[in-house]
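Chain X:
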Amino acid sequence: MDVSHAANAAAAPLGDAAVIAESWHEPELFAEIFHRHFAEIHRYVTRRLGPDAADDIAAETFLAAFRRRYRFDPERGAVRPWLYGIATNLIGLHRRAEKRFYRALARTPADDVTYDHDERVAARVTAGRVGAELAEALAGLSAGDRDVLLLVALADLTYEQVAQALGLKYGTVASRLNRARRKLREALGGVDPTLINEESS
């Protein structure tokens, strides 16, 4: 390896898993994980609980991840599903708030949704996609089915990544997603919701 190649290799940014491993000995390095993924996790929480709860839940996600960083196993997968799993578990402590958010969204015309927040554009898009019937149907899903559905639809995770995030078997993810989609189709008169991303496997 020549000197210039070695310098380029040294300058290349560390991957997420390597950053976490390094942070075991240099905790301040974990800030890089926060900078890389906070906005994405914040958007996800906003779309599930609304902007009022998003700041706190997203911050709690990274605090929990920092405290659990010694337990992160890169052999089990990437950092994103791990973070989404933590966020989803924290959202689980706010199930009533999530149902209230979707039911309020079902009653609110998309043009009336305004947020004094950096996520207002994403929230408007979500409100536009989620019509009244769909919002009400999402509120009516079981917690486990809704978690799987929204990790695929909002976080764009694959079935395998959802399984990793939630500690489920692949088949359980598939069956929950199928059940959730069937219930939504029934609620929407047979229409397949366009916010669901079909995984090609």
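Chain Y:
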Amino acid sequence: MAFVLPDLPYTRDAFGDILSAETFDYHHGKHHNAYVTKANELVAADPALQGKSLVELIRTSKGALFNQVGQIWNHSFYWLSLSPQKKQPTGTLLNLINEGFGSVDALIEKLKAEAVGHFASGWAALILNEGKLEVTSYHDADTPVAHGHTPLLILDVWEHAYYIDYRNLRPNYADRVLKEAIDWDFVAQNLDGEGVSRADQPG
């Protein structure tokens, strides 16, 4: 079974000027799709790899294959981290945010600083580490799954994620998405690790 490009959980024009339909056309339709195509080519060339899920391949591969499957997983999780309806954290998640950062606004500023300060391409992320929230980032195609981390949300800071709408202004992109377009319900669901399985695909 080949990996497939997952459908977006919303329409391409759902985010207005936060993220344009053109950005989704290129980011999802071309960049994400290219990772899927290349991963399938690499897996098809090696019978020992066939039948393994994305997460299995991420944890056991390196080099070109790791880059492709890591990017498939990261992008799939990124789409799920977004919502065209503005939401707010509640319940256990809100309590963890207040305990770890003092407020939702403080968490958002920390995530923004991580995204803006990350050198070159990669991903800013909120993870759960030993019962506490932690802000971190990953270089290039690296992913929380490779390190056994529990991902709660992930923000793409590769240039193709924002250049159509924001040109070189990564801070503006990070600010708007984090303040207006995060699916905090999805983030809360991931406290039990659900997001890993939702972004995974069987091979």
